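cache lookup: miss for this entity combination. No prior model stored, computing from scratch. Input as submitted by user K.M.:
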Amino acid sequence: MSQVVVVDYGIGNLLSVCRAIEAQGGAVTLTGNPDEIRRADRVVLPGVGAFGKCVSEVRRLRLESVLNEYRDSGRPLLGICVGMQMLFTTGEEFGEHEGLGFLPGRVVAIPPDVAGGGKRKIPHIGWNALMPSRTWEGTLLQGTKPEECVYFVHSFSARPEMESDTLATADYVGFNVVAAVHRGPIMGTQFHPEKSGEVGLRIVKAFLTL
Amino acid sequence: MRPLRLIARLDIKGPHLIKGVHLEGLRKVGDPHEHAVRYADAGVDEILYLDIVASLYERFSLADLVRRTAENVFVPITVGGGLRNLEDVRLALKSGADKVAINTAAIRRPGFINEVVHEFGSQCLVVSIEAKRQPKGGWHCYTDSGREVTGRPVVEWSQEAVERGAGEILLTSIDTEGTLRGLDAALVREVSGATPRPLIASGGVGGRTHVTEGIAAGADAIAVAHVLHYNTESVAELRSALIASPPFHRSV
């Protein structure tokens, strides 16, 4: 059985992500211990709240070098929500913050103004449909069908430099939300698979088998 | 597209799921956990647990219930009632809640909103407003499940809550709550127009047409209770009412 570490750096509801992994047959350890992260077969990096606060907690707990080491080992890593945002180079929430830099790109605010008039409410909260940016074969979304819905809650959105890093997008009143990214063993979902019912559990399952 | 949500609202007193009229005259319905699991399986978008007597006793008591439900419910869970400080919020989130709903403590000490947002992020804070129509027009905020008068106009308070960082507004009309005669659409329209945050409309949904009316008035999510508890409408029927509102689409 796959040994999955969910990185605990003291932020948010981590119980649900652990339960979702267990429900799909993974063995989970919720920990911020560097040795356990080094030994993991798979690592999940969760995150809610502000980008700056999340990265500064990761750094304060001296987890950045461990995550770098883990990334270099080529084993699968899944960032969820702000955990995905932290994979990028830079985040712009409450000032500019340096991310982990595993994927080139920025994390920017979703604009409240809709082109051509009107407003979109921020945060983007709710279920939204996944649209493919490239083939989902052999990726995190291999068991997902286009237009299946998943649960989002966020005010900021990733802008990857490399088009090929984007796996899926979702349309939020005309704004293109980068919903999932995937480059080799580095994966991320802006939405919460652990809160996306049966569709989300299939995505967790895919992560455990990749 | 604009994502719209159907939220199952479960009011709790002690160990029981209860339902009242105008937040009073409470009747026991059953075990809240069993109902939550059933609603999630049927396809509601979120679960909302509110301990409606907790503020009275100044305590947060739903951690165990949330923990139990988070074990096998994989949709978002919001919990409220008696949350007074950051430790209460931390316990709620740690127990498996994704969001907390706060009314009394926020009105008493608005800075609490800023503190929660700073510590946990605005996405996890739902400011809960109990609104009652005033004889001279407009609506005022109440606390403690409609028992305490605050004298604060609803629109003004909702704007302050948003400025302080609230991620969502849960708007319950005391006048329509439990009546099954439909939401207070004028209230929904007023608050939705005044704040840029997602709005959950609650109180009075007796059938699918009320869901459609709430969305038309500007709500982003509709909380339903009685119709699910007493099985007078199915989740599928309510969902088709949401789908009938053009921007919605989540099929399950």
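stored under new cache key. Residues 5-244 of chain B form a domain with the TIM Barrel fold (CATH 3.20.20.70).
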